């Protein structure tokens, strides 16, 4: 994101706060960031935080322009308070953008069946063979299955106070809906 801000928009000021509840994940992120051109600079901070209570991590109301979460919200114990927190910390006009596993679109029922079977049979097996960890990959399949479909998740985003596009789809499906991008905007006051 900082590369994009810098190289595409000539923006040398935007800063990014990376938040995760897991200190080990943050340490890994920090390690990777150190190897990047932004790693040692003031534009990148790593904060241990529960997305369901960002106030506890000192994140003030209306303090961010963009809140983005990728393959994360599915793992939160309860996404609804996390969406409300995203709304709180964004400035009016700020953007919520979420990339997450979703549901294969309706005209593709055979693909949906194959995909579910693949997730529950093949992915845990590969996890066992490659990482020696079947359970984590079984959890991955279960969490994908449990996460709400695009419409339901879109309604949750609206319930948190965001506005979503009125014309056209309120989300963007990738690979037939295996993954979807949802966006919401905090209304101007
Ligand atoms: C599958 S990883 C994705 C990490 C990263 N977004 C990526 O794409 O590489 C999910 C992350 O969500 C974090 N997580 C789970 N519950 C959380 C919560 N309540 N608040 C903040 N982070 C959370 C986990 O610690 C984990 O690092």
TrEMBL record:
It comes from the Eukaryota. The keyword Secreted does not apply. GO terms for biological process: methylation. Keywords: Methyltransferase, S-adenosyl-L-methionine, Transferase. InterPro entries: SAM-dependent_MTases_sf, UbiE/COQ5_MeTrFase, UbiE/COQ5_MeTrFase_CS. It holds the Pfam family Ubie_methyltran. GO terms for molecular function: 2-methoxy-6-polyprenyl-1,4-benzoquinol methyltransferase activity. This is Uncharacterized protein. It comes from Trichoglossum hirsutum. The lineage of its organism: Eukaryota, Fungi, Dikarya, Ascomycota, Pezizomycotina.
């Amino acid at each position: 994101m900082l590369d994009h801000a810098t190289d595409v928009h000539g923006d040398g000021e935007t800063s990014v706060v990376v938040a995760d509840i897991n200190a080990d994940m943050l340490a890994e992120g920090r390690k990777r960031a150190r190897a990047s051109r932004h790693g040692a600079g003031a534009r990148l901070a790593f904060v241990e935080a529960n997305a369901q209570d960002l106030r506890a991590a000192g994140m003030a109301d209306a303090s961010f322009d963009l809140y983005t979460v990728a393959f994360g919200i599915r793992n939160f114990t309860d996404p609804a308070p996390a969406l409300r927190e995203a709304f709180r910390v964004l400035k009016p006009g700020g953007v919520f953008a979420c990339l997450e596993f979703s549901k294969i679109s309706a005209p593709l029922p055979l693909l949906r069946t194959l995909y579910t079977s693949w997730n529950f049979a093949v992915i845990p097996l590969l996890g066992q063979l490659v990482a020696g960890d079947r359970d984590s990959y079984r959890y991955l399949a279960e969490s994908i299955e449990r996460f709400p479909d695009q419409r339901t998740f879109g309604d949750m985003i609206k319930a948190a106070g965001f506005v979503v596009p009125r014309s056209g789809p309120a989300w963007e499906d990738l690979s037939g809906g295996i993954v979807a991008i949802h966006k919401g905007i905090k209304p101007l006051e």
